[in-house]
Amino acid sequence: MIYNIRGENIEVTPALREYVEKKISKLERYFEEVPNSEASVNLKVYSDGQRIEVTIPLHSLVLRAEETNDDMYAAIDLVLSKLERQIRKHKTRVNRKSREKGGAKYAFAEMEGTTSTTILEEQEDDDEFEVVRTKSFDLKPMDSEEAILQMNMLGHSFFVYTNAETDATNVVYRRKDGRYGLIEPQA
Predict the structure, then answer these.
(1) How far apart are alpha carbons 88 and 105 in whole angstroms?
(2) Which DSSP category does 108 fall into?
(3) Which of 103, 99, 119 has its CA nearest to residue 111?
(4) Is 183 helix (H, G, I), strand (E, B) or coil?
(5) DSSP letters of 124-173?
(6) Can you tell me the distance from the alpha carbon of 157 to that of 22, in angstroms, rounded to the nearest whole number?
(7) At 80, phi and psi to the nearest 5?
(8) What is the pLDDT at residue 49?
C-alpha cells in the first residue's frame, strides 16, 4: 500500500508519519493479497481538536473514516478501529453472498483463531437495519433560511422541506463545524 500523508496546520514529523504507516499497515492482514492502492491520510489541527481523515480506495469498495480527538495519536488509533470495523462488516457481507451463490473464493483472508462464522455471528446485529420509529408530516413550502429556523426550533440536526421556489424536496442539516448544509435533488 502506498501512503499519501499530508498535514493541514501541522507538520508531519517522521515519528508521526511512521506511526500512521505502522497503524494503517495493520489493515493489510485482512486481505489475502496486499491491496495495490493509495491510502490518503489527512492530518488537521483545529482550535477545538485534531482530526485525521483516511481514505483507501479498493477495487470493490472505498474505506473512509475520520476521527477528532485532542491527541493526534489517539485519533489515529480511533480511526483505525473504525476502518477495521468497516472491513469486518464488508467481509461478512461478501462471504455471505459467496456462500449463497455457491462458494466463490473469499475476497478477505481468514484471521487466525477466528472463523468466518464467528465473525458472522459477531456482525449479525450490525448487518440488520431496524427502523424503530416512523414519522409522517406535511412538507410545507419555505426557503432554506426558514427551514434552518424550524430545524433549530425543533432541536434536530436536519430538516426536510419543500423548496418554495423549485417545488422540490430539500434537506437542510447542521454540519459538524456548526454551519449548515443543503441537499437538493438533481434536475
Answers:
(1) 17
(2) B
(3) 119
(4) strand
(5) HHHH-------------EE-HHHHHHHHHHHT-SEEEEEETTT--EEEEE
(6) 36
(7) -65, -40
(8) 85
Residue type, 163: N
* pLDDT value at residue 77: 92
Q: What ranges in the chain are assigned the alpha helix state H?
A: 14-25, 72-101, 116-127, 144-154
Please tell me the distance from the alpha carbon of residue 172 to that of residue 162, in angstroms, as a whole number.
Answer: 11
Tens digits of residue pLDDT in 47-68: 888 999 998 887 767 788 888 8
Q: Are the C-beta atoms of residues 64 and 40 closer than 8 Å to each other?
A: no
| Alpha carbon distance 82, 78 (integer Å) | 7
Cα(61)–Cα(171) distance, integer angstroms: 27
Strands 141-142 and 62-69: unpaired
Q: How many CB atoms lie within 10 A of CB 86?
A: 17
Encoded amino acid at 32, one letter: E
* pLDDT for 162: 93
Cβ atoms of 44 and 100 closer than 8 Å:
no
Contact call for residues 56 and 39 (beta carbons, < 8 A): yes
Instruction: Please classify residue 59 by burial: count the beta carbons closer than 10 Å to its beta carbon, then call 0-12 exposed, 13-18 middle and 19+ buried.
Output: exposed
